[in-house]
Design brief:
Strand content: under 5%
Number of strands: 0
Distance between the termini: 59 Å
Order of helices and strands: HHH
Helix content: over 70%
Number of helices: 3
Length: about 80
C-alpha cells in the first residue's frame, strides 16, 4: 500500500501541475477573446478610431466617443477614492 501511495503521488502531483498550467493558459486566452468580442463599447471605440484614421467619421461621432471616454475616466477616478 505504501508503494502504491508513493508511486501515485510521484506521478499525480507533477501531472496535475502540468495539466493545471495548460488549462490556465488556454482558458485565459479564451476568456479574453470572449470578453473582447462581447464588449460593445470597445468595438465602438475601435470602429470610430478606424473611421477617424480613414476620414469617414463625423464630428458628432468623434465628440460622442470623446465624451464617453471622459465619462469612463471620471468613473475610474471616482472608484479609486
Amino acid at each position: 500500500m505504501w508503494l502504491f501511495s508513493i508511486i501515485f503521488f510521484v506521478f499525480y502531483i507533477p501531472g496535475s501541475i502540468l495539466i493545471g498550467r495548460w488549462h490556465r493558459y488556454t482558458q485565459v486566452s479564451t476568456d479574453y477573446t470572449i470578453l473582447i468580442k462581447s464588449n460593445t463599447t470597445l468595438a465602438m471605440m475601435i470602429r470610430i478610431l478606424l473611421d477617424i484614421k480613414t476620414g469617414k467619421a463625423t464630428k458628432e461621432e468623434i465628440l460622442e466617443v470623446r465624451n464617453l471616454m471622459l465619462d469612463i475616466e471620471k468613473k475610474e477616478k471616482d472608484s479609486f477614492r
